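Re: that backbone. Tokens:
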């Protein structure tokens, strides 16, 4: 019969690779930093009224921001295809030169718009225009919207 060796054995030394762990953690930290930087820089497009944007023109430089105002000149198309118009708010006016997608058919004289872009000298270079529509549809067509409440629903009380 064979005898069993029951003497305690020393466990094998664990393979130590601290450089690999530090490399993995450093890579993960780098990826997290890049993602955070991208999120913060892409979310920093801010909103100004025309009077504020004109007043801060020198300090804004070529920073991208959104400017809100009312269209006060009939939009014209320049020879290069850019849309030219003027907006106003708070007693200040700004000339806008828009290159990009044509705004919707709601874009017209007297409508409120938000243009995204930056200052190029005294002209605001826009790449996107958002048009605020009015609620005239409901006012002009009240019979198309049913505002009556369902009488079968019991009131909470």
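Recovered sequence:
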């Amino acid at each position: 019969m064979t005898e069993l060796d029951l003497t305690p054995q020393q466990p094998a030394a664990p393979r130590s690779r601290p450089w690999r762990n530090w490399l993995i953690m450093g890579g993960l930290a780098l990826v997290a930093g890049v993602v955070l930087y991208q999120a913060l820089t892409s979310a920093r497009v801010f909103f100004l009224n025309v009077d504020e944007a004109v007043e801060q023109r020198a300090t804004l430089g070529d920073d991208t921001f959104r400017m809100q105002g009312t269209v006060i000149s009939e939009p014209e198309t320049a020879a290069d295809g850019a849309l030219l118009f003027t907006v106003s708010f708070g007693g200040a006016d700004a000339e806008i030169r828009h290159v990009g997608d044509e705004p919707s058919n709601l874009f017209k004289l007297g409508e409120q718009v938000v243009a995204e872009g930056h200052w190029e000298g005294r002209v605001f270079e826009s790449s996107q225009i958002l048009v605020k529509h009015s609620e005239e549809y409901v006012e002009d067509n009240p019979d198309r919207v049913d505002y009556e409440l369902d009488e079968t629903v019991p009131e909470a009380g």
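The helical segments are 18-42, 50-55, 57-60, 136-140. Residues 47-137 form a domain with the OB fold (Dihydrolipoamide Acetyltransferase, E2P) fold (CATH 2.40.50.140).
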